[in-house]
Design brief:
By secondary structure, the protein is α/β, with parallel strands linked by helices. The protein is built from 7 helices and 10 strands. The structure holds adenosine-5'-triphosphate and magnesium ion. It comes from Anaeromyxobacter oryzae.
Length: 273
């Protein structure tokens, strides 16, 4: 792995994570959520973080976002050490982070209003984004009147409006039915191909990770470390029914299953104590 000085040249990754450890103290007990994480994400790359529940995916994403600093180690994003959230890193949460009292249009416009954009700029940008995400007919609706898939679409439109070079997505499609999920995955890929943002996408879906990612980062269970990085060289659009796709799926499943079993064994030991 390259160890260039941050900021030194064009090959500088969009995200550089070195030696990241994160311990939580809860009820007098320490939980080591992450340990010894080293990872580079290239500008414009789409990387999936994959692993069983509790392996530290959200913790790692939050460290990149700057919501919760690591106990040890460093995260550099867009050439600057991460010490707090910033407009260069936009987060899409698993729960639809929409304002229920605002219409679709106002939700999408919110970040632009905060940034002090003119009415004209806001209007042009919001119109374009609503069209891009097939939401134009729903601009005056409130979140409660939308399906889950549409709400998640609004959440994506809202994050795209901010124009951050980096999108951090924490299981954004986890709660959706299979068909809606596939639609949104395709939409995300379309937008990514057009805008070339850097995306870190957290999921526990093996197929989802192989469908989306340039590289799948498989994490170990507690402490979360990088178990294996699996490059996905298949051309897009990918066919989940193809032999190549299924070969990768088997490989990644075996890695995840190992961690799942380790997790269950550890839980068994904990119960037996
Ligand atoms: N604020 C916190 N305080 C204490 N422990 C925490 C906190 N946040 C996370 N943890 C612990 O750290 C570990 C990793 O949690 P994290 O939420 O990052 O996992 P995850 O991989 O995102 O899981 P899931 O797939 O269920 O969302 C878990 O054991 C969790 O209980
Ligand atoms: Mg999580």
């Amino acid at each position: 792995m390259a160890t260039d000085v941050p900021g030194a040249g064009a090959a500088e990754p969009a995200i550089r994570i070195r030696g990241v450890r994160k311990a939580f103290a809860t009820g007098g007990r320490e939980v080591l959520a992450l340990d010894g994480i080293d990872l580079d994400v290239a500008a414009g790359e789409l990387v999936c973080l994959l692993g069983p529940s509790g392996c530290g995916k959200s913790t790692l994403l939050n460290a990149i976002a700057g919501f919760s600093p690591p106990t040890r180690g460093t995260v550099v994003a867009n050439g600057r050490p991460v010490t707090a959230p910033g407009p260069d890193r936009a987060m899409v949460f698993q729960e639809y982070a929409l304002f229920p009292w605002m219409t679709v249009e106002r939700n999408v416009a919110f970040g632009l209003e905060m940034a002090g954009a003119t009415r004209q700029e806001i209007r042009a940008k919001v119109d374009a984004l609503l069209a891009k995400l097939n939401l134009s007919d729903f601009r005056d609706r409130f979140p409660k009147d939308l399906s889950g898939g549409m709400r998640q679409r609004v959440a994506i439109a809202r994050v795209l409006a901010i124009d951050a070079p980096m999108l951090l997505m924490d299981e954004p499609f986890g709660a959706l039915d299979a068909l809606t999920r596939r639609n949104l995955q395709d939409e995300l890929l379309r937008i990514w191909a057009e805008l070339r943002r850097t995306i870190v996408f957290v999921t526990h879906g093996i197929e989802e990770s192989i469908y989306l990612a340039d590289r799948v980062v498989v994490m170990t269970y507690r402490p979360g470390t990088v178990k294996r990085i699996v490059p996905v060289a298949l051309p897009r659009p990918r066919d989940p029914a193809s032999a190549e796709f299924n070969a990768l799926k088997r490989e990644v499943s075996a890695l995840v299953m190992e961690e799942q079993l380790r997790h269950e064994a550890a839980e068994g030991r904990a119960t037996a104590d």
